[in-house]
Amino acid sequence: MKIFHLSFTSLLYLLGVGLAVNCPSMVFSAQVFENAVISNQANQTIDVVKFSDATLTVGGVTNASAIATSGLSVRFNSLSPFICTVSVGNKIKAVATGTCLVVARQSGNANYKPAPQVISSITVTKGNQAIGTINFSPALLEIAGTTTLNAITTSKLPVSFRSTTPNTCAVLGRTATPVATGICSVMATQDGNANYQAATPKNKSIAIGKSNQTIDGIIFTPSTLTVDGTTTASATTTSNLSVTFNSTTPSICTVSGSVVSSIASGTCTIAANQPGDSNWNPALPAVQNITVAGSAIVTIQPGPSDGIDTWITSVYYGGGSLGVSYNDLIRVGGWGDSYYGLIMFNLDDAPSSVEKAEIQLYARNNDGDAHTSMSLDLVTSPWVEDSVTFNTAPSYSYVSTIPAPVTGSWYVVDITNIYRNWKNGAIANYGIQLRPDETWNYWSTFYSSDYADDPTLRPKLVLTIGH
């Protein structure tokens, strides 16, 4: 503490009192606090906050302005940062719909006290958005391919795609898949949300061209082929279109549909073709070879001592007993009665595996009567050549109908499947039966194993064996 001694007159002068009096000197004590501050800052206020745009949409910007009575600059802050933000001093950017609250501040300086804050608001409404160009990746599209769709909106919201040409292409998610060649048109849409209006749809098209296709290798089933045999060709394409086949070696093999038939031994070459269609280009032909092996022929032609064949009749014939056999003939038909032929071969030494098995009978002159078509029957019970009669005839099951023979030629009966079943033990070998379709003055006559004038005309079993 410091003590000052002042005259009364001096004190009044210091206090600003102009007194012209002469008073005795008096002693006063004054306590003075060092560093005392006497404020002389002025007050200031901020007027109303104004916005450069009266309306504000999401994504938009407006400028805020306000004037302080001090002339000092005003700064702004957002009181609703999820609705709007403030950047670069006074730029108000809308980020969501709602009420945007902005506070104006002036913090003062050495001459002015801080100004009272001023709060103002502006309503933020939904913003507009636009869809950019639709891009295809890849930019070229074929029937067998796909392309990825992409487009960006100004709102950064995701875009949905759909096909406006469903007969040409389909769209799932962002992938466009061709259905047929032509023009594929795609529409991009964005339906908006709480902050953005729906965007105007954007369309774009891409041409779909034909695709190339290939033919897979030709497969033969079975994989081996012998002379006079058949095999089936098959092949697939990447387009799933059907394939046609042709032989490029017609002297060795021929093709009907997918069935390859061999004519001679050698190399059979088959070509597969696919000509394309409105969506696919023609495929390059596929070529495959298959070797045709030569065949061995085994002929079993028994004579009187080992042949087993006869015919039976439903009435007495030629004065003989019921079921008499004329030793050198086999008759099938009838003159109002019925004649059945029975034929059996001993297969003990016959090969087990054959490509083909045929019974061949030589048709003799028929004395002017017409030949008849016949039923081929599988005999299913035993019989004895010398004692069988119509009344003791063996049981049988129908196999197929076969045509009438031609006089003076070999009559061929295909028994391939029957023969294979005989040899593999699936059925017992009791031979076959020929049963007439017509019995009124129709009959067919064949030489039997007892025919002596020309042994080469006796019945024979001809077996084709592949190498």
- Secondary structure category: mainly beta
Classify the fold: give the CATH topology of the largest domain.
Answer: Jelly Rolls
Shape designation = rod-shaped
Please give the order of strands in the largest beta sheet. 26-28-33-30-31
- Unreliable residue stretches: 1-37, 318-325
Average pLDDT score: 88
Number of domains: 5
The count of helical stretches stands at 2
Helix content percent band: under 10%
Please identify, by name, the CATH architecture of the largest domain. Sandwich
**Beta fraction of the residues?**
35-45%
The profile of the biggest β sheet is: 5 strands, antiparallel
Overview of the structural elements:
With 467 residues, this protein is mostly beta strands. It has 5 domains: 1-36, no CATH class; 50-125, Immunoglobulin-like, CATH 2.60.40.1080; 135-209, Immunoglobulin-like; 219-293, Immunoglobulin-like, CATH 2.60.40.1080; 300-466, Jelly Rolls, CATH 2.60.120. Helices cover 3% and strands 39% of the residues. The protein is built from 2 helices and 35 strands. The chain has helices spanning 8-14, 416-423, and strands spanning 50-51, 56-57, 61-65, 75-78, 84-87, 91-94, 98-105, 118-125, 135-137, 141-142, 147-150, 160-163, 169-172, 175-178, 182-189, 202-209, 219-221, 225-226, 230-234, 244-247, 253-256, 259-262, 266-273, 286-293, 295-300, 308-313, 329-335, 339-344, 356-362, 374-379, 396-402, 410-414, 432-436, 440-447, 460-466. The strands form 9 sheets. Strands 26-28-33-30-31 form a 5-stranded antiparallel sheet, with no helix packed on it. A 4-stranded antiparallel sheet has the order 1-3-6-5, with no helix packed on it. A 4-stranded mixed sheet has the order 2-8-7-4, with no helix packed on it. A hairpin with a 3-residue loop joins strand 5 (84-87) and strand 6 (91-94). Mean pLDDT is 88; it is low at 1-37 and 318-325.
